[in-house]
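We modelled the chain as a single entity of 209 amino acids. Its sequence is:
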Amino acid sequence: MLTSQNHGDLRMSVQWSRSFVYRWHVKGTPQIKGKLVADVTKRLGVKHVVFSGLENVKRLTGGKLVVEHFDRKGEVEEYFWSIGVPMTSIHLAAYFENFLTLWKPKKASDGDYYTVALPMGDIPMDGISVADIGAVVSRIFDSPEEFLGKAMGLTYEKLGFPGAEEMANMFRFYQMKPARDVKLTHRLNPEVKSFSQFVSENKEALMGI
């Protein structure tokens, strides 16, 4: 339920001139909360919002695939655009950090190697470290004339290696090669980490699998 208290709390957290929207802390479903953020930024006249969005897979595939965390963000992003919030939307690649949690490599029975169960076949998957996103957002804010009104897919590199229904659908969607721009990401953050650097920096966590 949207209340005046929700609006008040949210107004306190939104900068007047610009705002980066990744998560929100008000009551309601993700879609309701996201649309509330959009309404408040519109009402406050925020001049530049950078929204961490994703594609609405259900709509793009005519309902053939449902990836709820993509679809929820996609629905909210579409609402931002529809009410005219001055915005840049960034569609981020899969996080390298997922290999420390959801996608941890599994040690083979003979102990000689590890396997990663990502059903991508021979299609490279985009990847980026969460730690590199802040610098990207900062560069976008520094160049509103270039990035306002755009939706951009960002990635460090294409990872060339081969659960639940939602995760399976997400990987099917990744096989459709959604737009993720390697060169633009490197330009926005020249220090962005490669997957090999990420593995090197987190080798202790990975070795503890």
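As a brief sanity check on the tokenised model: The longest strand covers residues 48-53. The chain has one domain: 4-207.
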